[in-house]
Amino acid sequence: LYRVRDPAQALGATIENADTYTDEDGLTSDNIIHMFEDREGNVWVATSRGLDRFRSNPVVPVALPEAYTNNTIAAGEDGAVWVAGMFTSPLVRIDAAHRAGARTPLLEASQPVQARSVLRTRDGTTWWGGLGVLYRQRGDRVDVVSGPREVANSWIWDLANASDGHGLWLGVDDLGIWEVDGDAWSPARLPQGLLSRVPSASWDDGAGVQWFGYTENRIRVVDHGRVTSYGPEDGLDIGRVKVIRGNAVQRWVGGELGVALFDGKRFHRVRFAGSQQPGAVGGIVPTHSGDVWLSE
After folding, report:
1. What's the whole-model pTM score?
2. Is the alpha carbon torsion for 68, 71, 77, 80 positive or negative?
3. What is the C-alpha radius of gyration for the chain, rounded to an integer number of angstroms?
4. Element (H, E) at 143
């Protein structure tokens, strides 16, 4: 896990100011599954063995029951965090006031889930992608939106808002992109230029622009129905894209071979000073303080 304290350096030759965290520093595991920043400025890190919270102080581990492995996390109200495991178990809420060493207070939602993807939409609904089903969460109520027989045994690995603003796009194993509008499922109607295969990463900038990453250094950006393609000729050289994140001024892309920063026209590979370089970057969190967190 890396913390870049001055990301403006990233377009230069090397980054000089980066911190590194491992399980020796208190992380529950070096195998990081998911990260995000909450409204209070805390950075939450879900690992294969638990959950960690970074504040202005060092790591704050959050103890979870043994059933919670390879967790997916989403922001809740009032700084809380919802946690879903890969195996069927209750969707649980962690209060923002949790203190290191304290017993973890767990509030269970109304429906057990198993999830590998999550999306919080602008209306406050949180969608969890599971094995052939979607879970629709509002507060502590969870409803199951079952898929058709064709997807019953397939994981939903990616969730995004449909570009026309109606419904969701789902990346379903080897079945490609599906669309869900209400409770109705169908193969998605994609804008011309967008690949029909399941993306390996996606990100919505909140202003109607969606980013999708794929294997072989490929990215597609959908801006209100218009698709722009990026590839090696535009500086992408990080292999399969694993994560795309950004803020008001920056766009970061992590992949199998490292991390790159987009300057509005081209991508620039980010390198750290010294011998230690980021490997396969699967998590990126640009924070409100200006730092950027990277996880392998």
Report:
1. 0.76
2. positive
3. 19
4. strand 141-146
Residue 260 has pLDDT above 90, yes or no: yes
C-alpha dihedral sign at 203, 204, 205, 211: positive
Nearest to 229 by CA among 240, 220, 239: 220
Q: How many CB atoms lie within 10 A of CB 247?
A: 16
* 3-class state of residue 25 by DSSP: helix
Helix or strand holding residue 142 (H, E):
strand 141-146
186/178 Cα distance (integer angstroms): 6
DSSP string, 39-102: TTSPEEEEESS-EEEE-SSSEEEE---TT--S-EEEE-GGG-EEEE-SSSEEEEEE-TT--TTS
Give me the mean pLDDT over the 115-128 stretch: 92
Between the alpha carbon of residue 135 and those of residues 93, 147, 181, 264, 268, the distances in Å are 15, 11, 14, 36, 38
Helix, strand, coil shares of the chain as percentages rounded to 5? 5, 45, 45
Query: How many helical (H) and strand (E) elements, i.e. helices and strands, does the chain have?
Result: 0, 28
Between the CA of residue 38 and those of 12, 44, 210, 225, 291, what are the distances in Å?
Answer: 29, 8, 21, 30, 14
Q: pLDDT tens, 40-60?
A: 778 888 888 888 888 755 566
Do the Cβ atoms of 258 and 238 come closer than 8 Å? Answer: yes
Check residue 132 and give left, alpha or beta (phi > 0: left; psi -120 to 50: alpha): left
